[in-house]
């Protein structure tokens, strides 16, 4: 069974077998959509930071006092040149951290900004200790899972890695936790950790389209929460070990409600690949 098949099976388990995280549903054909209540979730950004060639860059976005992080991501301004990668994206109690690696080439830089989705409700954050995680040998691919406390579900999450050459293939929620897959393209051993942010409130997982990525290019997929639901965080899935995450970005709709999740990935292989956005949504 391929990694893509395993993840599709996991997605089916989420949709069919879970209780707290649910699939989207539709009402009768003649039902009118209810007016959307204002979202209690707000989106905040950090500051732009630049990374020179070969540099591992860390950026942070923070919630205002009294608010708590539910999820987050970043955007890499790399002039559409597919050689800048997210190698870490994870949260704390009131902040979100993103790590990016610039492989554009000498005399080329990238600008990165982090985003965090914040809520007035406290959340549980599980940060794996340095002694946790999983070893990733040179040239190998490994997956790792972090689980929420009993009775809680993920609102956001993501990987931490030991170096800028631990490239992320997938970072996805499941019934009671978070899973990430990374490939070590370095000559030295690496390590993969997973952090997860959790809540006792029910959430729903929604999927964007499987967007095709031609060899040597990047592609994007966007998912939007149904009207009346609001984004807390999201994940990204690629189809192959040669497709790497470029960035993941929460954003607001025209009414300034945080409902969209966009993911971009780079295909460094010789055959077409796909990238799929996974959005986590909840009601106010």
Automatic annotation (TrEMBL):
Domain of life of the native organism: Bacteria
Keyword Signal: yes
Keywords: Signal
Signal peptide: 1-23
Protein name (database record): Secreted protein
Organism expressing this protein natively: Yinghuangia soli
């Amino acid at each position: 069974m391929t990694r893509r098949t395993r993840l599709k099976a996991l997605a089916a388990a989420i949709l069919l077998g879970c209780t707290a995280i649910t699939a989207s549903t539709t009402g009768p054909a003649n039902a009118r959509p209810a007016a959307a209540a204002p979202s209690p979730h707000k989106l905040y950004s950090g500051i732009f930071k630049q990374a020179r060639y070969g540099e591992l860059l860390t950026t942070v976005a923070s919630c205002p006092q009294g608010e708590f992080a539910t999820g987050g991501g970043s955007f890499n301004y790399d002039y559409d040149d597919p050689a800048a990668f997210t190698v870490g994206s994870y949260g704390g109690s009131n902040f979100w951290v993103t790590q990016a690696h610039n492989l554009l080439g000498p005399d080329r830089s990238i600008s990165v900004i982090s985003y965090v989705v914040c809520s007035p409700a406290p959340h549980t954050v599980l940060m794996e200790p340095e002694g946790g995680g999983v070893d990733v040998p040179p040239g190998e691919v490994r997956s790792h899972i972090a689980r929420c406390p009993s009775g809680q579900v993920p609102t956001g999450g993501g990987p931490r890695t030991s170096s800028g050459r631990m490239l992320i293939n997938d970072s996805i929620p499941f019934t009671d936790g978070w899973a990430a897959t990374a490939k070590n393209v370095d000559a030295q051993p690496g390590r993969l950790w997973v952090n997860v942010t959790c809540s006792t409130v029910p959430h729903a997982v929604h999927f964007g389209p499987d967007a095709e990525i031609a060899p040597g290019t990047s592609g994007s997929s966007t998912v939007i929460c149904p009207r009346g639901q609001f984004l807390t965080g999201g994940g990204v899935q690629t189809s192959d070990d040669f497709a790497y995450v470029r960035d993941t970005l929460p954003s607001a709709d025209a009414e300034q409600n945080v409902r969209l999740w966009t993911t971009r990935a780079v295909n460094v292989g010789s055959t077409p690949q796909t990238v799929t956005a996974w959005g986590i949504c909840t009601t106010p």
